């Protein structure tokens, strides 16, 4: 396995890029530690696949370097990077048995057959496909085919990194949870460096120890699932992660205080000096409650999502969502909304602009 370092990485599909708008990947500097589980998360077109192709060697970046354990591999082809990749659609040989599919990467590297057998059966047991080893791969269900495809990526114990490019795309929704759990379990047992690319926040947050959130070719936050949820450093992270996403509300800043719809809103801490441009308040629906005072609002609609209700209310012409357990108001009711102070933040031009109370 390997530590992966991306140093001053940028990429453009134009031969002579003139400005930031010409770059599919803005400057990226980050380290992925040996044996970690990481996710690249973001919407279609944000640069996830471009970055994955650069790490795998399918594409050479316009600028910067890729290091595996401090060795520069920027210009090495894929076969010299010692990587394994699992794609959106299962990559297996239908004419082979499950056993031979799993054995193929090992036999291709000249491993002794006795050692091949031990490793194949280990992986088959982990994937819970031991009873399928003699079956032809062509007859497997889509989820089992993807299991075998994953197994082909995991069967080698000498790879620097295993990369998953949206591997659950073709899997039925009711089976996705099972495969996500299995992949997490496999990582904990194998301890391989794994990078998982997805636009699905649930897949990223349940698999990864660290999530890299991307938007328009830029890394906007790197953190644990808890960090991304509890303290998004960019409004995009707050909006993209969570269901419903973070309330992002336009505000005015005067004399070191934030005002929404003409009323002062208490923030988690002091506003960063120089915060200007487009200013907004961010607060997750989980931290908006109904009270007897606060921001006056009118209920627009109430959605029962099972574990709780989502109350959507209008403060002036701005929509605010609140997650409510227990009794809920009716559509059209006048209510008051209260924001939990330590979870209410100011953002300037999208970026976090308040210091947590007590922070330096």
Automatic annotation (TrEMBL):
Annotated CDD domains: ABC_Carb_Solutes_like
Family of this protein: Belongs to the ABC transporter superfamily.
Entry-linked Pfam families: ABC_tran, OB_MalK
MF terms (GO), sorted A to Z: ATP binding
Origin species: Maritalea porphyrae
InterPro entries noted in UniProt: AAA+_ATPase, ABC_transporter-like_ATP-bd, ABC_transpr_FbpC, ABC_transpr_MalK/UgpC-like, Mo/tungstate-bd_C_term_dom, NA-bd_OB-fold, OB_MalK-like, P-loop_NTPase
Protein name per the record: ABC transporter ATP-binding protein
Classification via SMART domains: AAA
């Amino acid at each position: 396995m390997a530590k992966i370092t991306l140093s001053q990485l940028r990429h453009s599909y134009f031969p002579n890029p003139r400005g930031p708008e010409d770059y599919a990947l803005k400057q990226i500097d980050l380290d992925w530690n040996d044996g970690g589980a990481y996710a690249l998360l973001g919407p279609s077109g944000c640069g996830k696949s471009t970055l994955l192709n650069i790490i795998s060697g399918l594409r050479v970046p316009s600028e910067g370097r890729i290091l595996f354990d401090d060795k520069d591999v920027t210009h090495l082809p894929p076969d010299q990077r010692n990587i394994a990749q699992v794609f959106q659609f299962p990559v297996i040989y239908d004419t082979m048995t499950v056993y031979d599919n799993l054995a193929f990467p090992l036999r291709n590297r000249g491993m002794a057959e006795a050692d091949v057998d031990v490793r194949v059966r280990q992986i088959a047991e982990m994937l819970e496909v031991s009873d399928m080893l003699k079956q032809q791969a062509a007859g497997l269900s889509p989820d089992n085919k993807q299991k075998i495809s994953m197994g082909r990526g995991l069967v080698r114990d000498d790879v620097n990194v295993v990369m998953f490019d949206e591997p659950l795309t073709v899997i039925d929704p009711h089976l996705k949870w099972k495969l996500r759990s299995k992949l997490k379990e496999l990582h904990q047992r194998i301890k391989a460096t794994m990078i998982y690319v997805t636009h699905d926040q649930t897949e990223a947050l349940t698999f990864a120890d660290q999530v890299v959130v991307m938007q328009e070719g830029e890394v906007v936050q790197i953190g644990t699932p808890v960090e991304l949820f509890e303290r998004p450093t960019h409004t995009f992270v707050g909006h993209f992660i969570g269901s419903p996403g973070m309330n992002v509300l336009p505000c005015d800043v005067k004399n070191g205080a934030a005002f929404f719809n003409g009323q002062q809103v208490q923030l988690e801490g002091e506003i960063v000096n120089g915060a200007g441009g487009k200013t907004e308040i961010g607060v997750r629906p989980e931290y908006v409650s109904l009270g007897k005072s606060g921001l006056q609002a009118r209920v627009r609609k109430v959605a029962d999502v099972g574990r709780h209700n989502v109350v959507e209310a209008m403060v002036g012409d701005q929509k605010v969502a609140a997650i409510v357990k227990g009794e809920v108001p009716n559509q059209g009711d006048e209510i008051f909304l209260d924001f939990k102070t330590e979870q209410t933040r100011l953002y300037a031009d999208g970026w976090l602009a308040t210091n947590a109370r007590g922070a330096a």
